[in-house]
Amino acid sequence: MKKVLINFAHPARTRSKINSALRAAVERLEGVTLNDLYTHYPDFLIDIEREQRLCDEHDVIIFQHPFYWHSTPAIMKEWLDLVLEHGWAYGSQATGLKGKLFLQAISAGGNYSQQTGGNGFTIAELTSPYRSMAKVCKLIYLPPFTVLGIHRGLPEAEIRVHAEAYRRAVIALRDETLDLEQVMHYPYLNSDLNAVIRGA
Amino acid sequence: MEHFLLQLFIFLAAAAIAVPVAKKLGLGSVLGYLIAGIVIGPFGLALIGEVEEVMHFTEFGVVMMLFLVGLELKPSLLWQMRTPILGMGGAQVVISSLVIGAVACYFVPWQEATAIGLTLSLSSTAIVLQTLREKGLMNTSGGRSIFSVLLFQDLAVIPMLAGLPLLATLAIHDDGHHGAALVDLTVLPGYLRIVVTLLAILLIFLIGKYASRPVFRAIAATRVREIFVAAALALVVGISLLMIAVGLSPALGTFLAGVVLADSEYRHELESDIEPFKGLLLGIFFIAIGASLNFTLIGNKILLIAALTLTLIILKWLVLVIVSLIFRMAKKQRSLFAIALAQGGEFAFVLFQFSKANGVLPNATVEPLISAVAISMFLAPLLFLLHEKLTGKSGEDDGEGPAHDSIDRSGHKVILAGFGRIGTDLGRFLITAGIKPVILDNDPANVDVLRKFGYEVYYGDASRLDLLESAGAAEAELLLITLRDIDRSRELIELVKKHYPHLKIAAMAADRNAVYDLMDLEIAGIQRETIGSAVELGQQALQLLGIDPYETHKLMRIFKRNDARIMPELYQAHRAGDGDYVSIYRQHNADLEQLMNFDLTQDLEELDKAWNHDVKDD
What we know:
Chain A has helices at 17-26, 37-40, 48-57, 74-83, 123-126, 128-136, 156-175, 180-183, 193-196; strands at 4-8, 32-36, 60-66, 101-107, 140-141, 145-147. Chain A is α/β, with parallel strands linked by helices. In chain A, helix 1 (17-26) runs parallel beside helix 7 (156-175). Chain B has a six-stranded parallel beta sheet with strand order 3-2-1-4-5-6, sandwiched between helices.
């Protein structure tokens, strides 16, 4: 069983139904650690040692966050800037993150559909900085878990569906039942969960 | 008595007129004194007599100056400077003596040449240090090199006085008691003399380290200012007497006492008490030098003396350039270093008189040399001015990293007045941030306790101008005030604004009314004492009630920002004295409540709905 770290970055989670629901679906799972960045560091003074230790102790690193201005909330950028130190995260001798799985779980108001692409950009394009980061840090970047187009508002039932999918995905990552080769062919991790989870 | 008062009046009045004029003309105080001396001297208006006696008496100003210099040099700093002192100073004295002696050898026998070389190798501690201070160059690395050389020279005077009589070739004159006052090596056998000398130095150390502090503490507790002044003067004079008794230079003795006391909490108090006496004595000393210029002699032998002066300055300058090259000084400091020390010094007067008395040098040789030294001292401040003109500004910022300055007191760019409840945490914060403030507190008991905890706290009333001066207000950037009493804070601010207009001021205010009082004075920073802790405890309260830490943090910041924003308006209403004050206060509170509430309840789902590109026309 792999250990899963979820770095949760939402500045007002109590006011985001979807993020609260996704979080509630996974935070009490065995082998899963939830690390709420805004709660731990309201003043943005990130404890680098603690964060690196958490990464060391886990095999899968998930960043769960809303998509703000085609990107992450500010604290996640701060996290990347401070925690990913040379010599630990990257550099010829660095092995701090080597071989670990990296996943973004994104909720976004826009649709970012593959074909029409709302404002002309896809999620894959807009997340390219994180794919590049993963490469530099020798992380394995998985297609993001996405809940898109929530500008329409989400009925309770739909929220439950997303939360359950998230739960399945996290469990699959934990139990190593996710087909890593297969999933790379999809734009999103949750494009077709049944096709990428073994024994599903 | 009348005669004495008249003379005193003439000296003081001359200084009071000449120094402001000289400063106005950009010449510096030393030149002002020297010119005043020429004007009132026997060759000017002939208003004063007994110039030589005045000079001898006021030489004590040099002793006091070295005490003050010592106070600014902690033992650790002195130890750090051992290489420049012994190396640069040693090289300068030895090479200068050799070069000047070699040149003199062409004209006089070698014994006389040696005496001349040694004597002229010395520079003027009084003029150079005074000028460096005035120009704020004391704590640049160039200034420190210069100081190191001067210190070595002052030390070198002692063996010179001991050795010069060995060079005697002439019959001994009778008027030799001038030198004898400085050196009294005669009574004891050699080994005992050394023992006594070492004991005397040990005694200075013990007095400075252990005996002085309880005494000063007791005196400070009486809060009678002049007793402290008397004690400080007694200390300096007593040590001088002790040094004279064992045959050491009083300047050296008081310098050592100063160094030992540099760690003491009474350092700034001592400095500010001795400073005016030193200033006055040195000023009169400079006037005496100006008055002692023998214009008859200079007129008769103008070519000889001009040649001597020029040769002296050029030779010393060349040697200094060589020394600065040997010690790889930076280019900009090199030119200052060489020009600063290229003159004869006040010790030359002493040593020449001493040589004459001991039959080393004939009067005919000594007289023109003394004139040349005096003229070179007169030229020294002008050379400084020339250096400034050539290199642009005084060169304080000549690529010097701040790291250099941080060893010295003036490296503390911050003065912290009041070290009570607030001051303690503030001081701790600054110290952790790498800023070492000069901390002043008025309560000897408090100072004592805090010193035990390792804080660099000095005893003294921060609203006294002289204490501010010796705490470094002239060079400081920032004054932080955490006095309990708003009236005392205001007094201090008004004083500082008048005398140190460059100094930024930030102050703690106990309540809103105190804030308004401080706003009247237009200082750079005002902090209401309670707001920080109150709002931070409020943040904790919200968290304990289950609100997200990030939200509470944001609310705290919003509250603080808005509280700061409404202050100007509240201030105006308060000062206008109309009934609006309360209503404005209430209105703002209501606005703030609404704002903070909005921030807590704002619906993010609504914002998400704005991201509906797909529906848009593109």
